[in-house]
From TrEMBL:
The keyword Plastid does not apply. It comes from Rahnella sikkimica. GO terms for molecular function: kinase activity; protein-N(PI)-phosphohistidine-fructose phosphotransferase system transporter activity; protein-phosphocysteine-sugar phosphotransferase activity. PANTHER family: FRUCTOSE-LIKE PERMEASE, FRUCTOSE-LIKE PTS SYSTEM EIIBC COMPONENT-RELATED. Its EC number is 2.7.1.202. This is protein-N(pi)-phosphohistidine--D-fructose phosphotransferase.
């Protein structure tokens, strides 16, 4: 099963952080993928990704509107950076692009 992890954060640290997390989770689950999203909002880190989560991930999605804390833990992983507004409004399209990337990566292995 494809495993996607993500970290969402927005400059104000409130609504969009959580809206993006929900949209990413919903879009990944619609594809039948396992998904875990860490939020870095105004109340700190929630649903923190573990070392095991990162190790098992096929793809990492990071929002790019504000710096992500502890980003170094994703070194060596395929990382997709998206605007928080795209994560909220276009999560399905993001998953389609990831799906195409994963399919082409598998085809070349």
């Amino acid at each position: 099963m494809t495993k996607i992890i993500a970290v969402t954060a927005c400059p104000s640290g409130v609504a969009h952080t959580y809206m993006a997390a929900e949209a990413i989770e919903r879009a990944a689950k619609a594809k039948g993928w396992d998904c875990k999203v860490e939020t870095q909002g105004s109340i700190g880190l929630e649903n923190e990704l573990t070392v095991e989560d990162v190790a098992a991930a096929d793809m990492v999605i990071l929002t790019k509107d504000i710096g992500i804390k502890f980003e170094e833990r994703f070194k060596g992983k395929v990382v997709v950076r998206v605007a928080i507004s795209d994560a909220v409004k276009r999560a399905d399209a993001i998953m389609e692009k990831i799906s195409a990337h994963l399919a082409s990566a598998t085809a070349t292995d």
